[in-house]
Amino acid sequence: MPYEYLNHLADLGIRGIGPTLECALSQGACAMLAAMAKVDTVSTVHTYTQHCAAPDIPSLFIEWLNELLYQREIHGALFARARVTKVVKTKRGWTLEGQAFGEPLDPDRHEIHSEVKAATYAGLNYRIEGGQHIVQCILDL
Description:
By secondary structure, the protein is of the alpha+beta class. It is built from two helices and seven strands. It starts with a strand and ends with a strand.
């Protein structure tokens, strides 16, 4: 499984796993999206582009997830999936470019699981284990 859910008393922990940093960040985003709605009922008719920056990789994960939540809110959309297309180390830290694929929210057709308020720094971790990049955090529900 490319992502996992972590036990947490009140909120939800997510973990993205992949052979590259881009893949792990993408899988972490997909874990968040799947926790929010039944993603296989969401069409991918629109592409939404994200850009964010942070001083380090763990913070970049939080920025990426929160940018997805922001884009979802301002567009009134649900996303079926998301992917990181580019991560670059700069003099000031890291930048990320990504895309989310989805459509406008239709309460009559889409099954909503839970509302994610924000990705938090609680439980935030980035590591490489056995050749796999792993990112994780706690989502505020």
